[in-house]
Amino acid sequence: MTSGAETTRGARLAPPGPPRRATFGLLKKLFTDRLALMSDSAEAHGDVVRIAIGPKTMYLVNHPELAKHVLADNAANYHKGIGLQEARRALGDGLLTSDGDVWKKQRRTIQPVFQPKRIARQASVVANEVEGLVKHLRDTEGPVEILHEMTGLTLGVLGKTLLDADLGGFTSLGHSFEAVQDQAMFEAVTLSMVPQWAPLKKQLRFKESRDDLRRIAEELVEQRLANPIEGGEDVLSRLIATDGTREQMRDELITLLLAGHETTASTLGWAFHLLDEHPDVAAKLRAEADEVLGDQLPTHDDLHRLPYTARVVEEVMRLYPPVWLLPRVAQADDEIGGYHIPAGSDVVVVPYTLHRHPDFWPDPEKFDPDRFDPDRPSGRPRYAYIPFGAGPRFCIGNSLGVMEAVFVLTMVLRDLELRKLPGYEVVPEAMLSLRVRGGLPMTVHTRNRR
């Protein structure tokens, strides 16, 4: 192919993209810098890009209206794709990886747990968990690995709010999910050409982690079966009430444990990094926390009284959307932006690049929470900002995740200052979620609020 659009068989126009001679460079980026692969392709070739790497061809979609077409208007034609297909080996057919009628049934089962009134009732649980985190950080000597702390927090919140269970005893969860993500992405970028039986260290670690996650999920089910909650509204109770198989309950729990903690933990890690880089933003957030909360814990009603903190969370998710890639597979031929998309093609909507599209985001690399100020007209299309996905598969837990992130930032910054270690380089790592490579060590300083 050439770098420009070309006509395919039957006079159908194929999108532009990198030439075949660029395959080696593309392959290198696929392994080492997937964000650059997507960003550079969009910058060079436009809003629909055909990226051919060896036997694999994928189509990058980078415009709000075209993203709407894939994710909402013609969603039935696009099933889950690259990365999530590979994750199915560990997650099974949970809500994240399933399609069709199976997915619809799972969504109906889980949806009531996330009803707004029920989530509002969980605010005190979230605030108490964050209060425990603040006390822990204050008492810690030396640097803390903030991503590890956020993982522990978000798992604790997930257990108490969604499962009505204490996950504190399952200390291996975070490490096991990390191994699952690593393996899923490894299989995706190697096109699953490495045999699963090959005794590679990465694959052995994956198998151990998959077994660990299954053990934990099955133990949670056994605990609830032995101690049922009459009229329970939590996920465990609802899964048991559906009379699904043990395997189905296990898959759903593993999926929920991953999706329910990883995205919020990742967002909080990026937030602490950006707030350390931008002390003026941190100062505004602290001033709002002092004024609204004083010495009290936040309530659900306080969310609308913390608008600046909410804008900080929105801007963090614009620059570093936890779900940076929304992969799909076209079930039938389609046309996107005037270009032909063959059936069976991998189509990717990339929030990371879409959130930086210069036509919709002035000065897109700048960290500016006030770009989400409702009094500042933006004129942006709805699908220019999709940190929680869009269409039928819009993230079911978005309201809980935002409440948790707002509570963490306002309570931590009210009482503490977190500073990155001098000279520490923060590098994004695009796995199933967008995380900080190698963690985020920070020092903790108690704030004098006189």
TrEMBL record:
Keywords: Heme, Iron, Metal-binding, Monooxygenase, Oxidoreductase. Belongs to the cytochrome P450 family. Heme binds at residue 395. It comes from the Bacteria. The keyword Metal-binding applies. Its cofactor is heme. This is Cytochrome P450. PANTHER family: BIFUNCTIONAL ALBAFLAVENONE MONOOXYGENASE_TERPENE SYNTHASE, CYTOCHROME P450 FAMILY 4. One of its GO terms (molecular function) is iron ion binding. SUPFAM superfamilies: Cytochrome P450. It comes from Amycolatopsis umgeniensis. InterPro entries: Cyt_P450, Cyt_P450_CS, Cyt_P450_E_grp-IV, Cyt_P450_sf, Cytochrome_P450_Monoox. CDD domains: CYP132-like.
